[in-house]
Amino acid sequence: MRVSRVLSVTAAAAIVVGAHSASGQTDADRRAAETAMLQADRDFNQAAVERNLERFLSFLAEDATFESAEGRGRESVRKAWAPFFESNGPTITWMPIKAEALVGADVGYTVGRWQRSRTIDGKTTKGQGQYLTVWRKQKDGSWKAVFDTGSTVPVASIR
User: Fold this and answer.
1) Which of 93, 7, 19, 80 is nearest to 50 (CA)?
2) Which CATH number goes with the domain that contains 20?
3) What pLDDT is attached to residue 107?
Protein backbone atom coordinates (compact mmCIF):
# COMPACT_ATOMS: atom_id res chain seq x y z
CA MET A 1 0.00 0.00 0.00
CA ARG A 2 2.79 2.39 0.89
CA VAL A 3 4.54 1.73 -2.48
CA SER A 4 1.28 2.39 -4.27
CA ARG A 5 0.87 5.71 -2.45
CA VAL A 6 4.47 6.75 -3.22
CA LEU A 7 3.94 5.90 -6.89
CA SER A 8 0.69 7.89 -6.95
CA VAL A 9 2.32 10.94 -5.37
CA THR A 10 5.30 10.64 -7.74
CA ALA A 11 2.99 10.39 -10.76
CA ALA A 12 0.95 13.38 -9.59
CA ALA A 13 4.13 15.42 -9.06
CA ALA A 14 5.38 14.48 -12.52
CA ILE A 15 2.09 15.61 -14.04
CA VAL A 16 2.20 18.94 -12.19
CA VAL A 17 5.86 19.55 -13.13
CA GLY A 18 5.16 18.53 -16.73
CA ALA A 19 2.17 20.86 -16.93
CA HIS A 20 4.20 23.70 -15.45
CA SER A 21 7.05 23.08 -17.91
CA ALA A 22 4.64 23.04 -20.85
CA SER A 23 3.08 26.27 -19.59
CA GLY A 24 6.53 27.78 -19.17
CA GLN A 25 7.42 26.79 -22.71
CA THR A 26 4.22 28.39 -24.00
CA ASP A 27 5.02 31.58 -22.10
CA ALA A 28 8.56 31.56 -23.49
CA ASP A 29 7.21 31.01 -27.00
CA ARG A 30 4.79 33.89 -26.57
CA ARG A 31 7.51 36.20 -25.26
CA ALA A 32 9.73 35.26 -28.21
CA ALA A 33 6.84 35.91 -30.61
CA GLU A 34 6.17 39.29 -29.02
CA THR A 35 9.84 40.25 -29.32
CA ALA A 36 9.85 39.13 -32.97
CA MET A 37 6.68 41.13 -33.77
CA LEU A 38 8.11 44.27 -32.17
CA GLN A 39 11.27 43.88 -34.27
CA ALA A 40 9.26 43.24 -37.44
CA ASP A 41 7.21 46.37 -36.73
CA ARG A 42 10.36 48.46 -36.19
CA ASP A 43 11.86 47.11 -39.42
CA PHE A 44 8.57 47.79 -41.21
CA ASN A 45 8.76 51.41 -40.03
CA GLN A 46 12.38 51.68 -41.13
CA ALA A 47 11.40 50.64 -44.66
CA ALA A 48 8.91 53.54 -44.70
CA VAL A 49 11.49 55.97 -43.30
CA GLU A 50 13.93 54.92 -46.05
CA ARG A 51 11.12 55.18 -48.63
CA ASN A 52 11.88 51.62 -49.71
CA LEU A 53 8.52 50.51 -51.09
CA GLU A 54 9.56 46.97 -52.01
CA ARG A 55 10.97 46.32 -48.55
CA PHE A 56 7.86 47.87 -47.00
CA LEU A 57 5.64 45.55 -49.03
CA SER A 58 7.74 42.54 -48.00
CA PHE A 59 6.31 42.91 -44.49
CA LEU A 60 2.75 42.40 -45.76
CA ALA A 61 0.88 39.12 -46.10
CA GLU A 62 -0.40 38.50 -49.63
CA ASP A 63 -3.97 39.10 -48.47
CA ALA A 64 -3.24 41.96 -46.05
CA THR A 65 -6.03 44.38 -45.27
CA PHE A 66 -5.15 47.95 -44.38
CA GLU A 67 -7.98 50.20 -43.34
CA SER A 68 -6.18 52.98 -45.21
CA ALA A 69 -6.36 51.07 -48.51
CA GLU A 70 -9.26 50.21 -50.77
CA GLY A 71 -9.43 46.48 -51.28
CA ARG A 72 -7.21 43.73 -50.05
CA GLY A 73 -3.66 42.65 -50.76
CA ARG A 74 -0.25 44.16 -51.37
CA GLU A 75 -1.27 45.98 -54.55
CA SER A 76 -4.08 47.81 -52.74
CA VAL A 77 -1.68 48.85 -49.99
CA ARG A 78 0.93 49.84 -52.59
CA LYS A 79 -1.55 52.22 -54.25
CA ALA A 80 -2.75 53.73 -50.98
CA TRP A 81 0.73 54.20 -49.53
CA ALA A 82 2.58 55.21 -52.74
CA PRO A 83 2.75 58.93 -51.82
CA PHE A 84 4.84 58.09 -48.73
CA PHE A 85 7.52 56.60 -50.99
CA GLU A 86 7.83 59.54 -53.37
CA SER A 87 10.96 61.68 -52.80
CA ASN A 88 8.94 64.80 -51.94
CA GLY A 89 5.94 62.97 -50.56
CA PRO A 90 4.56 63.03 -47.06
CA THR A 91 6.42 61.21 -44.30
CA ILE A 92 5.11 58.72 -41.81
CA THR A 93 6.82 57.08 -38.88
CA TRP A 94 5.59 54.85 -36.11
CA MET A 95 6.87 53.20 -32.97
CA PRO A 96 5.40 50.06 -31.46
CA ILE A 97 4.74 50.28 -27.74
CA LYS A 98 3.35 46.84 -27.01
CA ALA A 99 3.03 43.42 -28.59
CA GLU A 100 0.88 40.52 -27.52
CA ALA A 101 0.88 37.00 -28.95
CA LEU A 102 -1.95 34.51 -28.72
CA VAL A 103 -1.31 31.24 -26.92
CA GLY A 104 -0.13 29.46 -30.09
CA ALA A 105 2.56 32.15 -30.56
CA ASP A 106 1.73 32.31 -34.28
CA VAL A 107 -0.68 35.27 -34.30
CA GLY A 108 -0.53 38.52 -32.41
CA TYR A 109 -0.64 42.26 -32.61
CA THR A 110 1.40 45.38 -32.02
CA VAL A 111 0.08 48.76 -30.94
CA GLY A 112 1.87 52.05 -30.96
CA ARG A 113 1.97 55.67 -32.02
CA TRP A 114 2.36 57.15 -35.49
CA GLN A 115 3.21 60.59 -36.84
CA ARG A 116 2.66 61.96 -40.32
CA SER A 117 3.92 65.16 -41.94
CA ARG A 118 3.10 66.72 -45.30
CA THR A 119 4.31 69.96 -46.87
CA ILE A 120 2.25 71.57 -49.63
CA ASP A 121 3.06 75.02 -50.99
CA GLY A 122 5.48 75.64 -48.14
CA LYS A 123 2.91 74.86 -45.46
CA THR A 124 3.51 71.79 -43.28
CA THR A 125 0.64 69.89 -41.71
CA LYS A 126 1.15 67.19 -39.14
CA GLY A 127 -0.99 64.41 -37.82
CA GLN A 128 -0.53 61.77 -35.18
CA GLY A 129 -2.38 58.93 -33.63
CA GLN A 130 -2.30 55.36 -32.53
CA TYR A 131 -2.31 52.15 -34.56
CA LEU A 132 -2.90 48.44 -34.28
CA THR A 133 -1.28 45.90 -36.61
CA VAL A 134 -2.17 42.20 -36.56
CA TRP A 135 0.71 39.86 -37.44
CA ARG A 136 0.85 36.20 -38.47
CA LYS A 137 3.94 34.03 -38.27
CA GLN A 138 4.85 32.50 -41.64
CA LYS A 139 6.17 29.00 -42.33
CA ASP A 140 9.68 30.43 -42.76
CA GLY A 141 9.48 32.01 -39.28
CA SER A 142 9.02 35.60 -40.50
CA TRP A 143 6.12 37.78 -39.38
CA LYS A 144 3.78 39.43 -41.89
CA ALA A 145 1.19 42.13 -41.27
CA VAL A 146 -2.31 40.85 -42.07
CA PHE A 147 -4.37 43.80 -40.83
CA ASP A 148 -3.63 47.43 -39.98
CA THR A 149 -5.81 50.20 -38.60
CA GLY A 150 -5.36 53.40 -36.67
CA SER A 151 -6.91 56.47 -35.16
CA THR A 152 -6.01 60.12 -35.57
CA VAL A 153 -5.97 62.19 -32.42
CA PRO A 154 -5.41 65.88 -31.70
CA VAL A 155 -1.75 66.69 -30.99
CA ALA A 156 -2.42 67.56 -27.33
CA SER A 157 -4.21 64.23 -26.69
CA ILE A 158 -1.25 61.86 -27.04
CA ARG A 159 0.64 61.10 -23.88
Assistant:
1) 93
2) 3.10.450.50
3) 98
pLDDT recorded at residue 122: 87
Contact 53, 89 (CB under 8 A): no
Residues 6 or more apart whose CB falls under 8 angstroms from that of 109 comprise 37, 99, 100, 132, 133, 134, 135
Count of CB atoms situated within 10 Å of the CB of 17? 10
- Distance in angstroms (rounded) separating the CA atoms of residues 137 and 63: 14
- DSSP letter string, 106-136: SEEEEEEEEEEEEEETTEEEEEEEEEEEEEE
Of 94, 98, 88, nearest to 127 by C-alpha is 94
Phi, psi of 135 (to 5 degrees): -120, 150
Classify residue 139 by its DSSP letter: T
Domain extent for 69: 2-157
Provide the 10 A C-beta neighbour count for residue 63: 11
Structural domain count, the chain:
1
**What digits encode the pLDDT tens for the residues 31-86?**
999 999 999 999 999 999 999 999 999 999 999 999 999 999 999 999 999 999 99
